[in-house]
Request: fold
Amino acid sequence: MKGQNRLDYRQLGLKAGLEIHQQLDTKTKLFCNCPTRLRNTDESTYEVRRYLHLTESELGEVDRAALEEARRKRLFIYKGYDTTCLIENDEEPPQPLNQEALDVALEVALLLGMTPVDEVHTMRKIVIDGSNTAGFQRTALVASNGKISIPEGDIGIATLCLEEEAAQKVAESINSTTYSLDRLGIPLVEIATMADITTPEQARIVAEHLGMMLRSTGKVKRGIGTIRQDINISIAKGARTEIKGVQTLNLIETIVEREALRQVNLLKIRDELKKRGVKQVEMEIIDVSDVFAATKCKVIKNALKKGGIFAVCLPKFGGLVGQEIQPGRRFGAEFADRAKRFSIGGVFHTDELPGYGITSGEVSALKKRTYATSENCIIFVAGERSKATLSLKVVVERVNMALKGVPEETRRALENGNSAYMRPLPGAARMYPETDVLPVYIPPERLDRIKSALPELLPEQRARYIKEYGLSEEFAGLIARSKRALLFERIVALGISPTLVVRTLEGTTSELSREGVPVQHLADEHFIGVFKLIKAKKIAKEGIPQVLKGLASSPSKSAEKVAAEIGLQAPSKEDIESVIDKVVQSKEGFIRERGLEATKPLMGVVMKQLRGRADGKLINSILKEKITAIMREK
Amino acid sequence: MKVKRVEVEREGITHTGLLMPSRGACIVLKLDSGYNIGLKKDAKTKVTVLKEGVVMPHKKVSSPSPNPALPTISILSTGGTIASKVDYRTGAVTSQFDVEDILGAIPELTEIANFRGKAIYNILSENMRIKYWQKLARAAADEIKKGADGIMVTHGTDTMTYTAAALSFMLKTPVPIVFVGSQRSADRPSSDNVVNAVCAAKVATSDIAEVAVVMHAGMSDDECLIHRGTRVRKMHTSRRDAFQSINAKPIGTVDYKTRKIHTSEEYRKRGEQKLAINDKLEAKCALVKFSPDAEPDVINYYTDKGYKGLVIEGTGLGHVSTEWIPSIKKAVDNGVHVVMMSQCLGGRVCDRVYDTGRDLLKAGVIEGEDMLPEVALVKLMWVLAQTKNSAEVRQLMQTNIAGELSERSKQA
Ligand SMILES: [Zn+2]
Reply:
């Protein structure tokens, strides 16, 4: 798949920027003294029900549909805990800005070569989805104008903001959304790069690099959900798209690839529409309920009870709506994403039919009913008339955008690397000062104190690895950039060969990953456990991959247990000797014939019997000893 | 509003944005991204004005055409913010007092009534004054005379209950007079202003012809309580449900979603009494709180200053230390009317149980029954403007005039 679709990104004029959100591991939240601890919703001790009241000025350039939605007054239910307080409930003014969090933000800013502001002003940024009880997120710009250097070049860092994490969505229904308050208010830094990234691979490298730098402070939260990436992507003839909520680094490359691909395909569709001479599509809704009077399609059957089936004809669109714009995702999905927000039963188009229980007879009846020819495409929705009308309206809006090419929009990352429409690109953020929080002046002494204790930067770290650990340039670079750099140092400190550690942490794990071993389950303590076995000579280095493999599939076990279970415990010297004795005896003739030259071939035989369990060097020396003894017997 | 667009160069970095007013030593810049940042103003900082005084136009909302089928509510604003508007270009928050702007911010109101309005004054509620209560009472009476079907008073929450009590005594009203405010600033999308205003408007168009306070019932946006203006007290600094009825049940509730009013207590019905205003108040009254070992000098001070009435917040059933008794006696002898209330808030004053109490009664203290201390103060001001005859004062203070006291303490 990847290989087939390889695009020439330079020629396409790909530009991407990252926005990384990283939770900080502080003792308390950003604006209250509650712990930054996540809870299970079943531990919730109270519940608050609220509405957000938004006027047009809060919604700003949000589309009409979102406005309609907001007017419907969604109910927000918040689950509280004994670890949340009135501040999370928006029932008490915030405490002053958490100074521990500001210190971490400043440390990260300085690491990224940024210039902090002299006075930090906390702002209220309007958020309309209910994920903040106040209806706004508190955020402050801490620093700007930094850069990071990666082998592929410099990437500018535009801004670093310190802000509060939103509440976690835990349930959703047609009229309400439930959020959990435990996460609300955890400090996070938002780092925005410039749109200097030009290839998908570079996007991944930058994300990894930033992640590594954040982790190198030792003051950020780890684990799933504690770091999130948003990616801004455009190609020269396309448009800027913001893809939100990328939770794993592995996905970044695919996301960028597939967004570039989507934009390329949308442009192809535009060109084809031009060629076909398609003009603006008119909004003309036809009630086609009668066509489906005897349908077997369940969705349509249900919809008929509540409302009906309503269609719009797209002249000369035939075949295009069904075209794939991302692997496994048709152009039609772009409309469906938008239409579905109106809780419509289903969105269908004739390019994908017959199917979903809709027969070819029904399709031709439908075409007849709408006077459509085969060069047309019919889109129809099932549901209440008012909702159907609204959803077809947005469908036609989107269809007409296709004549121009790629619309600017905010999209949601899907698990396979594709993305789905979320909302139009937000206009300028709606922000005003958080008057309940006083500005914080940062005296030069404070910056000096943080500067003097900065964790090591990457190039220096690499140089040190070469100098202190005798690593090759390649290995030093590899491990310094790795998220396991700190782990590497910890393991080497046990007295293990640095080269072996790098080979294991970087080489072995990616080999195992390619074999399909779930290496993401391997934690620092697993590696340390394995190397402790090596140090104690309980296993040989040849056994490392097998133990890691075992640990990855049962992460709750100890390295020692796994090694024992697969029989990897290194044999004692006596055991090795007895194996060698047997081999030597059976090959006595051969030894007499070849002398010490027999060592090498016999090594192979012994190793085969002991493989992975005994150290090659040790076997070699015992074998030589035995051969020499036999030679002497003569 | 006029703001300069500037470029600030500092440490080799140029920031561009709007220059904001600043109280500290830093230049405050609103960047195009919306963020404010503070930059030190020293020799290394270079400020260049790009555009002098960019005017930020204020968009005026036009008022909706009245719906003849709906009743008319008159909104009297005192400075408490029920509606705000944020200008996101500058971050400036302006309180909205014009009816058009309030309706623009809370469009739901237009479904309940036609509105007209008046800004009586524009002050923080902690700066409220007795003469403002009187002006407000006269304005309310005028609006009722002009045919308002209900009055809504927007008021800062800090002293809202004092004003509500004052209007309760000064006015006999044939229509609802509803006090409303917001505990959480009206500029936040989560503010309680909308729910409170919508519920208050519902009460203002109802048949509850009382001076009432309508505010959140709980932390959630489910419903509001309708408190009698003489029974309600702010019991929390910040929570939405800060307003509680003490020693009485609220008149009822308003469900926000259904806008249904449910009443559980007796109340005066619309049109039951004729409009009457008696806005005279004796301002020389004070509220004194007793605490252990407090010197009685404070009582002497008021007596010497010619005060006409004192409400003492005593301990428990209504006590002060025996040391205070001579000073209180002296006050009464000098024509000061002294009412005893309790810092317990809940319950009734009874000075007949312990010796100290009996001595206080002998000294001429009036037991304030189950009134709230602040309400007793306002009532005393009103009573003393009617009569200075001590027997009459005593009798009026111990008689229910506006629902402020009850003869029976009911099980909650
Ligand atoms: Zn808290």
